[in-house]
């Protein structure tokens, strides 16, 4: 999962750490050279005692040396050298220039959305530049921490505890799933039903996809495999009515959660978006979840944004993360929509769904999981 991105992040860490180390060493060499120059320029107390004239000469050459140092090194260098002498390393903007350019390219080529990449770069800059570290700390640690914070900042936008939300909500909890065709919506509903069952919550499936021929059969297969009740109407029926029936069934039978499928649609299909509005009006779902596939990268991010604009979503289920190397959608969707990723689909089996944990993803991306 996300191997391509992991490799790119790892290269950035190595390059940035190397640059900062190199510059720190330069500062050390300069600090040493300055110290030697100072020592050489310092008047010998023995000779000094005998000659008043040499006193004046020494002061002049000291000043000249100080001037030279100022001209050649600039205040940044001096500050750096001074910090180095006290056991610290200061990170300067120029150390990071090249690695950050490479990081930007790496993120964009991993399908990370532009504004998200910018934000990550800004945070890394903010966390690292002007930062001092003790020489005993590794620079890699400093870079890793900055990258960790930058990634977490964008990935964890809007995050809430899904399990707690379900536990605390009045029952039945109604969840409606939207998204385009073929991204794994129906499979995700089945997986979520199983995920809920494992945590002691019963669920009923309601097939609001009355549009596509074969939709009833597809979801029925899952319902039968999992031994769940399915509410379905004829093809061409009113999706809001199906989900409403699902809610009534749940109320009558003490079922905790209603999982409502809907037809795959583009945010631009007006009639289908109007159906979603009707579902909203008639059923007033507790949560509307957008489903898309991680492998769609930038397209998934764009669709999430467009769906959220057209019909406010509460979160995303990102499927096929197991087949995605880029990780761009996983990193970008929450920041772009302001709504969290709640689940990752990680395979075709019913158990292949994971509650999304931003901290866990960041650790995995930075190779800190083992
Ligand atoms: N590898 C992998 N495959 C998945 C995942 N989730 C779903 N799939 C597969 O993706 C395909 C499409 O899934 P569906 O659930 O039929 O997709 P859908 O969005 O409901 O499709 P429509 O009903 O046509 O809108 C199926 O073959 C699923 O097994 C996942 O997390 N990982």
Automatic annotation (TrEMBL):
Q: Where does GTP bind?
A: 179-186, 261-265, 319-322
Low complexity compositional bias, start-end: 56-67
| This protein's record includes keyword Nucleotide-binding | yes
Composition bias (Acidic residues) maps to: 16-45
Q: Name one GO molecular function term.
A: GTPase activity
- What keywords were assigned to this record? Cell membrane, Cytoplasm, GTP-binding, Hydrolase, Membrane, Nucleotide-binding, Receptor
Per UniProt, what is the membrane topology?
Peripheral membrane protein
Role this protein plays: Involved in targeting and insertion of nascent membrane proteins into the cytoplasmic membrane. Acts as a receptor for the complex formed by the signal recognition particle (SRP) and the ribosome-nascent chain (RNC).
Which HAMAP family would you find in this protein's record?
Answer: FtsY (MF_00920)
Q: Which protein is depicted? A: Signal recognition particle receptor FtsY
The organism of origin for this protein: Halobaculum halobium
Tell me the classification of the organism that encodes this protein.
Archaea, Methanobacteriati, Methanobacteriota, Stenosarchaea group, Halobacteria
Encoding gene (name): ftsY
């Amino acid at each position: 999962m996300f191997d391509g991105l992991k490799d790119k992040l790892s290269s950035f860490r190595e390059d940035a750490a190397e640059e900062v180390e190199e510059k720190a060493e330069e500062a050390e060499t300069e600090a040493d050279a300055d110290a030697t120059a100072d020592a050489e320029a310092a008047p010998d107390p023995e000779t000094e005692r005998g000659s008043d004239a040499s006193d004046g000469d020494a002061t002049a050459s000291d000043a000249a040396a100080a001037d030279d140092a100022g001209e050649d090194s600039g205040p940044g260098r001096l500050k750096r050298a001074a910090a180095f002498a006290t056991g610290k390393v200061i990170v300067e903007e120029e150390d990071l220039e090249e690695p950050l350019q490479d990081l930007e390219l790496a993120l964009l080529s991993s399908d990370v959305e532009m504004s998200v990449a910018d934000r990550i770069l800004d945070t890394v800059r903010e966390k690292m530049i002007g930062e001092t570290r003790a020489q005993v700390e590794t620079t890699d640690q400093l870079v890793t921490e900055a990258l960790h914070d930058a990634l977490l900042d964008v990935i964890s936008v809007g995050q809430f505890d899904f399990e707690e939300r379900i536990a605390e909500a009045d029952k039945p909890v109604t969840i409606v799933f939207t998204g385009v065709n073929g991204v794994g919506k129906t499979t995700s509903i089945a997986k979520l039903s199983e995920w809920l069952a494992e945590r002691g919550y019963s669920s009923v499936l309601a097939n609001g996809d009355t549009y596509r021929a074969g939709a009833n059969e597809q979801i029925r297969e899952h319902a039968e495999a999992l031994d769940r009740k399915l509410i379905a109407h004829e093809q061409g029926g009113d999706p809001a009515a199906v989900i409403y029936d699902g809610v009534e069934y749940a109320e009558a039978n003490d079922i905790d959660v209603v999982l409502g499928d809907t037809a795959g649609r583009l945010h631009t299909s007006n009639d289908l978006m109007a159906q979603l509005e009707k579902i909203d009006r008639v059923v007033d779902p507790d949560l509307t979840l957008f489903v898309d596939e991680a492998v769609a990268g930038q397209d998934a991010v764009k669709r999430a944004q467009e769906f959220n604009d057209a019909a406010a979503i509460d979160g995303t289920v990102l499927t096929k993360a197991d087949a995605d190397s880029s990780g761009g959608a996983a990193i970008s969707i929450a920041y772009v929509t302001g709504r969290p990723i709640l689940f990752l689909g990680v395979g075709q089996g019913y158990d292949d769904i994971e509650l999304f944990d931003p901290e866990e993803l960041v650790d995995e991306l930075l190779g800190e999981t083992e």
